[in-house]
Amino acid sequence: MRTIKVFDTTLRDGEQMPGVSLPVNYKIQIAKQLDKLGVDVIEAGFPSASKGEFEAVKEIANLGLNAKICGLARVVKKDIDQAIKADVDIVHVFIPTSKIQVEHTIKKTPDEIVQLSVDAVEYVKSHGVECMFSAMDATRTEMDFLKRIYKAVEEAGVDIINVPDTVGIATPFRFYDMIKKLKEHLNVPIDVHCHNDFGLATANTYAAVLAGADEVQVTVNGLGERAGNAPLEEVVALLYAEGFKTNIRMEYLVETSRLVERLTGVKMPPNKPIVGENAFSHESGIHAHGVLKDARTFEPGIITPEMVGHKRRIVVGKHAGRHQIKKILEDAGYVVDDEKLSIIVQKVKELGDKGKKVTDLDLFAIAESVLGEV
Ligand code: KIV
Ligand code: ZN
After folding, report:
1. Residue with CA nearest ligand 1 atom 1
2. Nearest residue CA, atom 4 of ligand 1?
3. Phi–psi pair at 26, nearest 5 degrees
4. CB–CB of 48/82 below 8 Å?
5. Cys-Cys with 75: which of 50, 115, 120, 167 at CB 3.0–4.6 Å?
6. DSSP character for 245?
7. Residues 6 or more apart from 333 whose CB is under 8 A from it?
8. Dmax of the chain from CA atoms?
9. How far is CA 110 from CA 59, 107, 113, 133, 148, in A?
10. pLDDT tens track for 250-287
11. Atom of ligand 1 nearest to the CA of 138
């Protein structure tokens, strides 16, 4: 069973999500929670971005957490110095490598890009600090150039390379192929960073792992630039279901998701996989009937709600059936015979047909009126 390392970038790429800005004390709370969750690396921020960012990274780096702390830097001495001054364990240097980004941003020749990257890696390593290197926009970069630049930084002593799908255009088969080729070409560990522009971040991350990636970059709740990054909770649960090991304590997944939701103010949709309110909820009569007998009938089974710190819910609604309504009422202490149950079920459906979301409280009110208790 292969162990896949989890590199969390909620506090860096996650915070780059429009509308999210975390004060230092919130960043510290999240870092402590990520450490409790068991992530291997916390990318705490981009130390040269601002004074506050530098202070936050430095404070997190000095908390004495088990996770390694990483800081982002462009391939320039000024950025690298700031990251090292912030006491990080890993400096993550990056440079654009795709034609479109090179042309409109750094405007350097391929030789210059390789040289800047090698110099940056050697500079980080000369300080006795670990180094990760990213070829930004790797999935839109020519393969020959990618192989060349990654080989050059490997020879310069980089500890791990990251392959970012910066604009989320990878697809699982293509990304698998790309990681496989890089794996055959390189000897350093490979990490991947997938964005979710086409909703494929989890699938692409998983494809990369199948192709041999050693580490995955994720964010809690999938926060991040534009449509976000690969969500930690989805990637970790999927890896578990497919027989890979991580160091994540999955029972804290929901707790972590809720904390990040509260501190960032970014609400999760109810149908969010693994951690959403409805991830283990059942309304339709056929499903609820099956689940009441054996939850595996209408759930993946390999992941139970308890394993991720969630709860299974059988809910009412116009699709509800007799069994689940009876079970909800019995759990709440109501005793109903078959005849009364039929009337209650009928009234629930009538309410649902009017477009009303039927809650447990609505059900109890109906039951009490039918049972003559009000
Ligand atoms: O998406 C991206 O390319 C990044 C890099 C800084 C790794 O976030
Ligand atoms: Zn990114």
Report:
1. 166
2. 166
3. -70, -40
4. yes
5. 120
6. B
7. none
8. 84
9. 37, 10, 5, 16, 10
10. 999 999 999 999 999 999 999 999 999 999 999 998 99
11. 3
Q: Closest residue (by CA) to atom 3 of ligand 1? A: 166
Pocket of ligand 1 (CB under 6 A): 13, 94, 134, 136, 162, 164, 166, 193, 195
Question: Are the C-beta atoms of 186 and 157 separated by less than 8 Å?
Answer: no
Task: Answer whether 175's CB lies under 8 Å from 204's CB.
Answer: yes
**What's the rounded Cα separation, in Å, for the pair 57 and 307?**
31
Q: Which pTM does this prediction carry?
A: 0.95
Q: Ligand 1 centroid vs 277 CA: distance in angstroms?
A: 30
Q: For residue 330, report the distance from its CA to the centre of ligand 2, in Å.
A: 50
Q: How far is CA 268 from CA 59, 67, 78, 257, in A?
A: 29, 26, 38, 9
303 neighbors 241 (Cβ within 8 angstroms): yes
ipTM of this predicted structure: 0.99
What's CA 225's distance to the chain center, in Å?
13
- The crossing angle, in degrees rounded to 10, of helices 338-353 and 322-331 is 110
Cβ neighbors of 174 (< 8 A, separation 6 or more) are: 139
Within 10 A of 193 (CB to CB), how many other CB atoms are there?
A: 30
What is residue 357's DSSP assignment? Answer: -
Of the candidates 184, 97, 99, the residue with the CA atom closest to the CA atom of residue 149: 97
17 token code pair: 């999500």
Q: What is the pLDDT of residues 9-46, one digit of tens each?
A: 999 999 999 999 999 999 999 999 999 999 999 999 99
Tokens representing 97 are 């490598």
CA of 354 from ligand 1 middle (Å) equals 48
Number of the ligand 1 atom closest to the C-alpha atom of 137 = 3
Best mutation site among 133, 193, 194, 218 for ligand 1, i.e. most ligand atoms within 8 A of its Cβ? 193
